[in-house]
Amino acid sequence: MRIPRIYHPEPIQQLGALALSEDAAGHVGRVLRMKPEQQVLLFDGSGHEFPAVITEVTKKAVHVDLTEKIERDIESPLNLHLGQVVSRGDKMEFTIQKSVELGVNTITPIISERCGVKLDQKRFDKKLAQWQKIIIAACEQCGRNTVPEIRPIMSLEDWCAEEYQA
User: Fold this and answer.
1) What is the pLDDT of residues 73-86, one digit of tens each?
2) Backbone CA torsion sign across 23, 152, 46, 96
3) Measuring CA to CA, which residue among 55, 54, 120, 110 is closest to residue 82?
């Protein structure tokens, strides 16, 4: 059986006992229905992986025991920044997922004159949070140990006027 990769949002400082985040605990406990003594592989975005064994599963929490810290750098040496005009429906989510799987480091959602999506700031903030979850899920799926950055939404003109950083 494949060992599930799970993202832990806070930096992991030491080996030993650790409680998974609420999202991760829900995924491991309710979706995957994992039990104590099963293995998971955690990553925190630092480029390291942490093999762990589940020690306790309750309705709202999952506790694991981290057994080691493995440095595994599989990132591309290229610094890829995608500027993507916000698209309708689930096309934007699909684009974000595939770009993360292909190695993009930074994603900037863009609004242009001909963009068909018109949302207020509150709904854009919700979209950013949703896109961040898609990025994390894509990292879990493809094996990346660093989580790409999703920047705030900006206009095409502002994005083109930015200074290029290599």
Assistant:
1) 888 888 999 999 98
2) positive
3) 110
